[in-house]
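Hey team,

Filing this mostly as a record. A colleague (T.K.) asked me to run one chain through the structure pipeline before their review meeting, and I want the input and output archived in the tracker in case anyone asks later how it was produced. No errors, nothing strange. Just documentation.

Input sequence:
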Amino acid sequence: MLNDTPLVHIDLSPEYKQNLRTLSKRYRNIRSDTQELLEQIQLGHFIGDRIAGLGEGYRVIKARVK
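Output structure:
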């Protein structure tokens, strides 16, 4: 790859962080599984479905991780 610098800033909600913490007690690999998805999004590979109607300056994506 030519450049691995993030193209997109990802802002995680406090609710997401709390849910991730709670789920990590049951699913030990959830952090590494979601980290791969977040890295792909930061590089500009938008995986998942875009949720429309939430503002012009924002891109909200709904994605499922195995």
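Quick notes for T.K.: Residues 30-42 form the longest helix (13 residues). The longest strand covers residues 49-51.
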